[in-house]
Amino acid sequence: MQTPIYLFATSPYEGTIHINSLDFEFFQPKIDFSSYDFFIITSKQIASVFKHFHITPPHNKALCVSSKTALAYQKIGGEILAIGNGYGDYLFEMIQQYPKEKRWLYLRAKEVASHFVQKAKEAGYKIDEIILYESRCSSKILQANIPKKAILIFTSPSSIQCFLQNHHFSLEHKVIVIGKTTAKALPKNIEYVVAKKTTIKSAVDLAITFI
Predict the structure, then answer these.
(1) What residues have CB less than 8 Å from 29, skipping those under 6 apart?
(2) Is the pLDDT score of 1 beyond 80?
(3) Which enzyme class, named as a word (predicted)?
(4) Residues 42-54: what's their mean pLDDT?
(5) What is the pLDDT of residue 114?
(6) pTM flag (> 0.85)
(7) Among 89, 173, 175, 211, which is least packed, fewest CB within 10 Å?
(8) Same domain, 127 and 142
(9) How many other C-beta atoms are found inside a 10 Å radius of the C-beta of residue 55?
């Protein structure tokens, strides 16, 4: 029997058993976007917030953490300033390429894994933050029936945290994570492999080699 591949993510992918790991609550932004030069966006959910409240994205160009995030923002009419490599910590280096006089607005979740904004502020960059959504563990991940022998793909620190609320890792689980930040959320005794790229496709391609 072929080893099943479980994908703990907010979006499905062909060839996997998709377990939606998070549910979201969106908050309507109450802020003057014209006060800022650029946006910082680290999640595709920001595009969902704009769509949910029928907001046309303003003309502020956005520094996006990854190509997937940039594509989601472009699809709703947003303009892109630059695209990162998928890691939040790398955005600090990208911000440093712009004058400190520029004003940034970080469109973010209530909880974030990276601390690049704090580093940028301490370096003298003008960055305000606004919380546009909050995530919580979905009932699907909490109630999922996960076999002892399976390949598990985790796409975010929160997907691991939600998994651990009601589940345990077995010795026969093969764990794949997208990104080093996600890996940090794993218990220290768990062996894992990091996907070559910070994409679900890269993680699934890696998982297939273990079947």
Answers:
(1) 49, 53, 55, 107, 130, 132
(2) no
(3) lyase
(4) 96
(5) 84
(6) no
(7) 211
(8) no
(9) 13
